[in-house]
Amino acid sequence: MSITLSEVKIAIIGLGYVGLPLAVEFGKKYPTLGFDINTKRVEELKQGHDFTLEVSADELADSAFISYSCDVEALKSSNVYIVTVPTPIDEHKQPDLTPLVKASQMLATVIKKGDVVIYESTVYPGATEDVCIPQIEKNSGLVFNKDFFAGYSPERINPGDKEHRVTNILKVTSGSTSEIADFIDSLYGSIITAGTYKASSIQVAEAAKVIENTQRDLNIALINELAVIFNKLNIDTEEVLKAAGTKWNFLPFRPGLVGGHCIGVDPYYLTHKAQSIGYNPEVILAGRRINDGMGAYVVSQLIKTMIKRNIGVNGANVLVMGLTFKENCPDVRNTKIVDILSELAEYDTNVDVYDPWVNPSEAKDEYGVELIVKPKNSHYDAVIFAVAHNEFKALSNDDIKGLMKTDHVIYDLKYMLDPQLADIRL
């Protein structure tokens, strides 16, 4: 290991919700290349625009030492490579490491002796050293921990959160040798004001990342199951949670759809690894089944209520407010709103989807969803408030009633409406 912080030249591989904020922060202090295979993305960033809205035009301009490219040759001048590509699951809910493998194979064509590769993408324990590093060794001819080195520092980006940013979230770091671990910790420590935590090994850091969201997933699954029970008992779940929340150590989780790039995905990486060593993780998978079934449950509640009120289901006009996986951000990755749409389609309803945060072309390309420009007045038999965007919270009771036919059902999935207005709450 011979690189010092004064000699660092960084390349960030993947400029999505994780990679871009990181690149911008490093680019304030070190020569930094933001690399992405999406040429449109690179051109937009060169023009000072981030469609994810994670980084403002001013913040992009303030990153004095950053440049952007989709040319692999441009990577050769770097000596520290940070990989922030997606790690999704496939249709069988198995880890899809294809982006990570391809990124590693690409790095093998540019990496040099003494260089360091740091992975931030969520993986199962062991993936960095068992899957990624062999790709670099095989395609570069270099020897791991002799010619090049590696580390793992799990991302903790929270899309749409303007309070918890990359610099003020404590960063876990790790390295393939003790010297590399110190170097990587110092590198991140130079930009992370919240500080760093140096894990004892790469596998510990990988495991820490994957259980962060597994823990949240299980907590939400518990609350979702409680909501189902309380609904059957005709007890208001939100009122129960408020009462229980008066105890100092009761955790403030709420029921709902579990989508996005982390909570609904990461547990499957851990369960995959567990099953590969002969252990069936019953609790984790049970939580996943509950959370993955909530879209169907929401629609079943809606349809039952419509039938009880003699509102015709076949051909009914239903408005779904929101498509993103969370409020006040344009992120539609792994959104579970599409589960609601699929279930509604089974009943031959006419569904309008409205979300002012989402790019209509992205909704169409990713999910085949045609967003409406504006909801229609006096048109809907039912409306589901599925995402708690500020724009939706700002609607008055009269605004909402103005969308509805005389006989209607309003489903408040996010506890955002006047309780007297909502006919159903999860």
Characterise the protein shown here:
By secondary structure, the chain is an alpha/beta fold. Helices cover 38% and strands 13% of the residues. It is built from 15 helices and 13 strands. A six-stranded parallel sheet has the order 3-2-1-4-5-6, with helices on both faces. Helix 5 links the parallel strand 5 and strand 6. Helix 4 runs parallel beside helix 5. It is elongated, with a radius of gyration of 24 Å. The mean pLDDT is 95.
In the predicted model, the low-confidence regions spanning at least 5 consecutive residues are none
- List the helices and strands in order: EHEHHEEHEHEEHEHHHHHEHEHEHHEE
Strand content: 5-15%
Cross-sheet strand order for the largest sheet: 3-2-1-4-5-6
Number of strands: 13
Q: Helicity range of the residues?
A: 25-40%
Number of helices: 15
